[in-house]
Amino acid sequence: GAVVSQHPSWVICKSGTSVKIECRSLDFQATTMFWYRQFPKQSLMLMATSNEGSKATYEQGVEKDKFLINHASLTLSTLTVTSAHPEDSSFYICSAREGHPNTEAFFGQGTRLTVV
Amino acid sequence: QKEVEQNSGPLSVPEGAIASLNCTYSDRGSQSFFWYRQYSGKSPELIMFIYSNGDKEDGRFTAQLNKASQYVSLLIRDSQPSDSATYLCAVIVGGKLIFGQGTELSVKP
């Protein structure tokens, strides 16, 4: 299957600072990338969908000014958590899809964010 | 009604038994259905996808889709302790991959 690389795999930051997470498709062009958040014992909650070259579409309840998503190229999307607070601590996972909307998406390894 | 629903479990089966995982979805227009396995602290990994009504088999796994009933299931034959994980049903709704809450499976030796 296709490879999606997410970096970093874990990060600890101080409250009030910003953290950037990168998601790269290594061997395909990702026309669409998805960002999910997962709290312990819960399922993946879609935060936003981004298409290359256009603004991300955020799910209801997700603050677009707090979770900045950039999908500037067909192989890279970034999620920046701005002014992080302890309640933002979570497992963030990206996935990427090439082509048709009904095809499978490939997942990155996830990023464990801890805000102290 | 949630877009994708699963029994949260936990589901416990003995080693060698068949594990049956179920999922229902609300959007009749959905065409693509996926089963992912997720180990604790890890990202989901794709087990199977199914697009057409009926059964699709891959090794010990069989996915079943019934679009009329808006129901998709995953059967795991000859369950092994290493199959113990959370199984996530996912459906493409409006181009977005939406997950159910997951079913925790425990296979006892």
Structural features, described:
The complex is a heterodimer of chains A (116) and B (109). Chain A is mostly beta strands and 116 residues long. Chain A is built from no helices and eleven strands. In chain A, the strands form two sheets. In chain A, strands 2, 4, 5, 6, 9, 10 and 11 form a seven-stranded mixed β-sheet that branches. Chain A has a four-stranded antiparallel β-sheet with strand order 1-3-8-7, with no helix packed on it. Chain B is mainly β and 109 residues long. Helices cover 0% and strands 57% of the residues of chain B. Chain B has strands at residues 4-6, 11-14, 19-25, 33-38, 45-50, 54-58, 61-66, 71-76, 85-93, 96-99, 103-108. In chain B, strands 2, 4, 5, 9, 10 and 11 form a six-stranded mixed β-sheet that branches. The chains are: A mainly beta (116), B mainly beta (109).
Q: Topology, please?
A:
The complex is a heterodimer of chains A (116) and B (109).
Chain A: E1 4-7, E2 10-13, E3 19-25, E4 32-38, E5 45-51, E6 57-58, E7 67-73, E8 76-81, E9 90-97, E10 106-107, E11 111-115
Parallel strand pairs in A: 2-11
Antiparallel strand pairs in A: 1-3, 3-8, 4-5, 4-9, 5-6, 7-8, 9-10, 9-11
Chain B: E1 4-6, E2 11-14, E3 19-25, E4 33-38, E5 45-50, E6 54-58, E7 61-66, E8 71-76, E9 85-93, E10 96-99, E11 103-108
Parallel strand pairs in B: 2-11
Antiparallel strand pairs in B: 1-3, 3-8, 4-5, 4-9, 6-7, 7-8, 9-10, 9-11
Secondary-structure element series of chain B:
EEEEEEEEEEE
Main sheet characteristics of chain A = 7 strands, mixed
* Overall average pLDDT of chain B: 94
Distance between the termini of chain A: 36 Å
General shape of chain B = globular
Quaternary state of this entry equals heterodimer
Work out the strand percent of chain B: over 45%
- Secondary-structure-based class of chain A equals mainly beta
**Inertia-based shape of chain A:** globular
Low-confidence stretches of chain B: none
Share of helical residues of chain A: under 10%
Radius of gyration of chain A: 13 Å
